Amino acid sequence: MDLEGELTHLDLSDADAASSSGVDGGSESRRRICDNCSRPENVCLCGSLPSEPISTATQIVILHHPHEHRHKLSTVPILTKCLLNTHTIVGRRLRHGSSAMLDSLHSSSSTDQLPRAIYLFPGPTSTHISQLNPKPGTVLILFDATWKHAKEMVDASAEYLSTFAIRACLDCDFGETGGSIFDSELILRKEPFRGCVSTMEAAARALRFLEPNGPGIESRLLNVLREMVRFQTSHLKPMKPRPKLLKKVNLRKNKNDEIF
């Protein structure tokens, strides 16, 4: 997902440095990593994290794409610091052997009248999560990846999930372009369409409907995400357009001039 514009784009090198080795790579102190949140000390989020991970009846399973596992803007590491009952699986699909918890649901699916798990992904077959009436202790399954990779992961996992999980979604609009880090205090990367959110925000929005104290949990998670976004935006800076991008824009301009 790209943050480029037509004429200018943003230099994310400072933001990346803030997530790996400090803002300007200067002193050793700026490179020190916090033992608790695993972020550089100058962008430490511990002041925003819950003093203890929040306990939920909902169990959260996150299928974490290998590419996202290395991405500096991934929200999964912080989400797992905030919530007690999270289980992260690095991979590209869910199948037998991926998770003992999911395998147990798969084995008992024939005796359950209601789905014991929900997986979030928008689409024509998805039910809005607010319309579901899940059992206490429902398993929430999230796919952490770019839009393209997440769709591939869902398709690859669909057969395995079909016997015990229902596909759900949050509010989204495929016909409207998504926002960027400048449009919302909760967006870290450019959205492919409106309503596509980070894994951390998706978890927060879903828990609002799944937990007795859902609104409170949602608020606490979103406060942490806001602080993470604030750190990233504070290290973004404009830079000159890339030569190839500038050439493309100039060619388009010349073509328009020829028309008139």
From TrEMBL:
Keywords: S-adenosyl-L-methionine, Transferase, tRNA processing. GO terms for biological process: tRNA processing. It catalyses: a uridine in tRNA + S-adenosyl-L-methionine = a 3-[(3S)-3-amino-3-carboxypropyl]uridine in tRNA + S-methyl-5'-thioadenosine + H(+). It comes from the Eukaryota. It is an enzyme of class 2 (transferase). Residues 30-237 form the DTW domain. InterPro entries: DTW, DTWD2/TAPT. This is tRNA-uridine aminocarboxypropyltransferase. One of its GO terms (molecular function) is tRNA-uridine aminocarboxypropyltransferase activity. Belongs to the TDD superfamily. DTWD2 family. Pfam families: DTW (PF03942). Its EC number is 2.5.1.25.
